[in-house]
Amino acid sequence: MLEISGLVNTVGTNGSPVLQHALSIGRGGAVVVAASALSSIVSSAVEDLPRGGATNKKAAPSKKNKAVAVKKSPKTTAESWIGPRGKAVFFMAVAMSLHYLGYSLARPITISLFTSETSGYGKYAAAFPFAMAFVSPMSLGLLLGYGRVLDQHGPRGALIRSTIFCATVVSASAIAINLFEAYGTLIMKVPAAKFVSGPLFVFRESYVQLLTTQYWSFMASALTPTQSAKWFGPIAGLTSITSAIAGFAVSDIIDSIGISFSLLGTGVTLLVSIFAANMAYAISEEHGFSPVAKKHGSNNKQQEQQMGMFEKAAKLFARVPVLLKLFIEILASQGLATILNVAFVARLARSIPNDAERAGWVGKFFSTINVISMVLQFGILPPLLSIVEPRIMWRIVPFIAMMFTSFQASQPDPTLYIVSATLLVMKVLEYSARRMLDEMVYVPLDFESRFVGKEVIGVFGYRFGKSLMSLGLSGITALFGDMGIQEYSILGAGINVLWFWASWSLSNEVPTRKEAEEIYQQQRSKKRGGGKR
């Protein structure tokens, strides 16, 4: 604990001015940083985001009204300084940042509750990978439910309903745990809180991608490949800001209202995010660029609805090979992330036995990850991706992680500092570069490839990779007993090699920026042509 705290203080004291300013989030500067970032994004949108919707039905002012139009323009400057697409993307980015604010509150709390010896399973070393094995089935259930809601209510209705559902589950779990602990409730001589903390941990691991992919799907449909290369970094940076704020504040919140009631903050932020998401969809519908589902192949609607999710995924992968390669890459990367996470939790539980202290430490650790990610997302990745092709970045990212996993594997007994540093690098790469590269793959694609593909890959793929690795770890534990940190580290280094191979294979399918822009413009031309018929 002291080692990582020293690392954070060293970075904050001796690092660059940008990083020092970013670290002020945890020292009272959160509002300034967030406001500055939001102002920068909105102001720059004047030059870069498109003006007007896809279909502007208002005619241009005639010569008779030219003077009137010129006269009115000064009054409407404040109203028209950012186009409708820019406004819609901005509101959706705010909704996503609120989602991550709540998620970053829930993450350290659920980890602490799960690893607690009283309300969780801290006495059982195999409990963590065993629980992770259930993430994929939970994600699949959420995905199937999302598919039905999407068919019935469209993207807007699906986002609102899934957000309300997630907020309700987290809030109800928080209240239940608090009541069970307050009254010492037992079920078959087992603390009742254990029956909630386990499923809650699995649900928290599952729901984050369900909502995240819906936000990104909307923004990918509103921006061109060129715009996405510039703006996906700052947009992701907003989530890093709110995540860092939540992580640094979690200790104070727990001290004020308790560890279980702190989860209610997640439910509140999710409900508030609905207002911003509604604004984004309202603007897109008013100006004619709201995402609308398109049918491929058979026109038989009933047959399309009855098609199984796996059959849909198989047909989608056959039609869009890059998504199949992306799915394989995600399985490998999330398998590695799971191993590093298991090693991190195992080392952490030994080093910090107190539940509240452990939750606060985890919050600060992930806040540090988000601060570093924010610096990359705002200041480094956007200009870098305007020079370096995405396919090159796909090859660089796993190679960077490989250097750290190899070093950790070479240690006979990796310390908390080493294990945390490796996980930090992996998470920074995932939250910054991988997140941007992942979303850029979808931008030139059609509706089905973007929305359905993102849910199949983003929700199920991410969690299936974690669950598959967790099942493997559980099987090894059952056969050979508990694994040590070094064994986890060696296995992680091997999986990192597989990730590098999968990422290289994917990079060969990723189009260049020029090719992606041409594909995107062809998609828009088809959409306009279809609308005129």
TrEMBL record:
Main location: membrane
GO molecular function: ATP binding; ATP:ADP antiporter activity
This protein's GO CC annotations: membrane
Entry's family note: Belongs to the ADP/ATP translocase tlc family.
Residues annotated as transmembrane: 88-106, 126-146, 158-180, 231-251, 257-281, 322-345, 365-385
InterPro entries for this protein: ADP_ATP_car_bac_type
Organism: Seminavis robusta
Subcellular location: Membrane
Hydrolase recorded as keyword: no
Entry protein name: ADP,ATP carrier protein
Membrane topology: Multi-pass membrane protein
Keyword terms, alphabetized: ATP-binding, Membrane, Nucleotide-binding, Transmembrane, Transmembrane helix, Transport
